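1st attempt posting a full record on here, be nice pls
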Amino acid sequence: MWSYKKNLEFDLPVTPRWAYLRRRDLMKGTALGALAYWSGWAFAQEKLKFKSNADFQKVDPPYKVTDKKLVLSYNNFYEFSLEKDEVVKKVAGWKIDSWKLEVGGLVKKPRTLNLQDLTTAFELEERIYRFRCVEAWSMVVPWIGFSLSKLIESVEPKPEAKFVKFTTLADPAKMPGVKELSNYPWPYTEGLTIEEAKNPLTLMVVGAYGEPLAKQNGAPIRLIVPWKYGFKSAKSLVKIEFVKEQPKSLWQDLAPSEYGFYANVNPKVDHPRWSQASEKVIDGSFFPKRIPTLMYNGYEKYVTGLYAGLDLKKKY
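the predicted structure (as tokens):
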């Protein structure tokens, strides 16, 4: 069994307050206490508690939560396919019931989390975050998870740990993309500075839309770093390591001229092959609207201090 609470402290101005309350009432009337089963996960929804933030309610323009069907069907997950609409089909027979997440490296208390631990070891909460892809499209998703900082506290990193390296599953027998893209430096790896990892916005995600995380979205556990381009938010994690040197990511290895370590959303720094000044809002329409991209994806006040003294104008 697992439950979570809503936390609007870092949420976007997705809808007016009345819409949040209406959603809560609907949950009470249709899903409260109902059991759902998915890949061996069983959970019961409890009454959702909201933590309001007046500052976000005043920010313009308002952003709408992306339709769940779109988030479940529009996926970048190259371990399965290069085609976004093919991923959901190819994950159908993939089993995750015996999942293990190893946490170690330069820490005093290494640990291994099994599938049940992922939803019970730390208090879960819902965070509604903007998600901005490096391909210049965006969504707004109500993720469910726990702050990575809580996991970091539990393993007690050593003073020499300056970075956190994330490694995802790469199984050519079960993930057709791994076999087909044999020129890729699998497994998929990513990294953050220890300060970025400890930032309260950085989330370890195990669910979305009130349900356990779908396989095409990175089940059973993924990273979400909302002020960075989406490729930094590694899916289906199997290992987290605390290291001394800056880790190299798969994309840095594969295309170093296009992808850097920090990868902060920045409308003033274009990708070598396209502009980052605006983004396409995924809404299911044939011609999605475009909106201006915000610095740090709109989370500037929470993360600017992480980059004091760094020249990020050329850092992609």
